[in-house]
């Protein structure tokens, strides 16, 4: 069957990723309110318009710069396993904190949907979220949902469908850095592209190299060795 | 015009609100603190100090995070309110 697609769920801890995962897939992946709850990757599928969406629940993290095993697992999945769509689940009541991760994901991969969860609680707190404005600014769909009350699911599934069929093309915002850093990116990026091709964002790898991210280098070396051996 | 008073987070008293101006940290720990919301311009409230003054709990971007003095002594900011 050529119509199976992988959808990864990323987000900060306690944003309701696992609740969304369970509500969508009908599985009973246990959720709990403590750090590092989602350790291994849970998978579950949803049938939609003659397609199978395979959802993968990534560990909840504040960042994807692999300060920990959890972050490394989530990062490697998004960058190297290349899911068809990455859903970033954000807590509507704490967007400032949550957008750190969202912007990191937008630098790593193209097909991203931003799910603003707990929208019912935010509205009770008087928080108004202009999702159309965010969609325009970020270049990817932004959808308000409540995983607990299953609000926004039809739009979410339809948006996933439209991305995998190519009806919508995501054009994630490219974050601009100070001139000095942009100049270095321009120098490094062609060399990176010669090695990783179009498989991984060369700009993102160049940025990580400038930051001295050795765990990423190790992972790329490991994958290149594997590929050479097969 | 009164000069803003610059203090280190480690020297904050319970109830103080401090606007971060500088992080004198590098590498992984700097990145980690930035990820947790200790960024320039962020307002941090001293929530609670341990009996021996270490660690200290801070409220930053709607979450409470405890820091050891090794880190909180390297973050500086303007004292905006002493909570009175």
TrEMBL record, chain A:
Keyword Oxidoreductase: no
Any matching Pfam family: FeoB_Cyto
Domain FeoB-type G: 4-166
Keywords: GTP-binding, Nucleotide-binding
Protein name, UniProt field: Iron transporter FeoB
Organism lineage string: Bacteria, Bacillati, Bacillota, Bacilli, Bacillales
Gene3D superfamilies cross-referenced by the UniProt entry: 1.10.287.1770, P-loop containing nucleotide triphosphate hydrolases (3.40.50.300)
Keyword hit for GTP-binding: yes
TrEMBL record, chain B:
Keywords: Iron
Chain ranges of the Ferrous iron transporter FeoA-like domain: 7-79
Highest taxon, organism lineage: Bacteria
Stored InterPro entries: Fe-transptr_FeoA-like, FeoA, FeoA_core_dom, Transcriptional_repressor_C
Keyword Iron: yes
PANTHER family: FE(2+) TRANSPORT PROTEIN A
Name under which the protein is recorded: Iron transporter FeoA
